Amino acid sequence: MDPRVQPSSKYFPVAMTDNEEPYPSLSDYHDYEPNLEFDDTELQSPTADIDLEKSIAIVNGTGGTLDYMESPVSDGTIEENFEEELVNAPQIVEGLTSLNDKETGNLLDDLEADDSKEEEDFSDVAKYGVVDVVGDDAVGRKIIVVSACKLPSNKEVDHPRLLRYLMYTLDKFVEQDYSLVYFHYGLTSKNKPTLSWLWQAYRAFDRKYKKNLKALYLVHPTGFIKVVWQLFRAVISAKFGRKIMYVNHLQELKQYLDLDQLNIPIPVLDHDEQLMKKLKKGKVTQQVELEAEQKPEPLPTQQFGVSLQFIKLNNNGEIIPPLVQKCVEYLSLPDALETEGLFRRSANINHVRDLQNRINLGEPVDFGNDVHLAAVLLKTFLRELEEPLMTFDLFDEITQFQTLPKDERPRQVKILILEKLPLDNYHLLKYLIQFLSKVMDRCDLNKMTSSNLAVVFGPNLVRSPNSQLSLAAIGPINAFTDFVLVNHDQIFII
Length: 494
What we know:
By secondary structure, this protein is an alpha/beta fold. Helices cover 45% and strands 7% of the residues. It folds into two domains: 190 residues, CATH 3.40.525.10; 184 residues, Phosphatidylinositol 3-kinase, Chain A, CATH 1.10.555.10. The protein contains 25 helices and seven strands. It has a five-stranded mixed sheet. Strands 1-2 form a two-stranded antiparallel ribbon. This is Rho GTPase-activating protein 1. GO terms for molecular function: GTPase activator activity.
């Protein structure tokens, strides 16, 4: 018998509905509701003008009420003269409610004109590393990181081109739910964009970018954020405002995102350490580090965060992990396969964590009639494997995939999968890809083509040994995954 034969699958019927509850907030000041959709009036048109004197008073702390959390210390890097900042941008303050095409049209027209051009080479902008895509969060959303400290001097960067690069990067991910992390530290008077450019950028990011953005984390907010928020709040919809969460310290962010995965810049880490020392009055506690070091031994029933070999050893030698079988069987039902946005939509974080805990305790799997919950759990299982399915040893070869001549790619991929991939990994990969081919067969209904599935599964199948995945590696990984999906019949042994 051929050793590379997949186990059989059994299906069980379950009705499915989409049910998502509010996402918990990082603070009592901001409630977050990921199931909110944007209406056709994303930009509101309030009739009242912004009161400049009131804005200045609020920014300076002499009047009004702030709706955001204040940083315990100033970062000392950005100009604090906010009266001058406001005065220097009167066209924004006075005209936000009635900006015309003359004020914002030039940039928007340039962006629309670029849509008809050939794909632009952004290597000169990408080299700064301002934008990074680092994988998925706890509920299966892609995480995009923007670091202000990596912005070059205004004399070096073409801001309209920078905006085109941001849109070029986001275009690959906005069709699925995603989260955005903005590290504000490092924004100085030398690299700070103008307020008019920020407004133009907001106008350029239309409904498709905002609809699937489920969380915007503003890390280490300072007075400049207050200025921008005070100026723009009159024209930013309340629904979008609920997605914004202010994070004063990285420990707050750690409750919801894996910090090791975020590739946090060194200056941001140093700044956060200084903030914590200030907060603790010089007493640095090691409680979090100790908790991380005291990792308990996994239970025999555990399936998340362990190795394939561990799962196999504790499940009577089963080649395919029980959870993967349950997810695939459930998602192979016609109603699930035909669900639009399958694998692109997130699930309720409390439901995900609760079911993860129960599965690790060996309790029966119950998806609660939630297709997206099953889809997120499958992605989470792959993402949290002790070693990725496409092993650390293969990472460098996979990230060089696009450099191979096209006629060489089929042979090299076969060598990589059939010869270099461990047998247990091969079995699971084949099982997974054959299921995903069924998803592709229903792409007219679920909108999940091979390229869409590659964007979703690529970073969950392939990871760097240091747990950080750069934007430069995302393209080759997705291209490799797409190739395997499209050519699976020629790659895998029947």
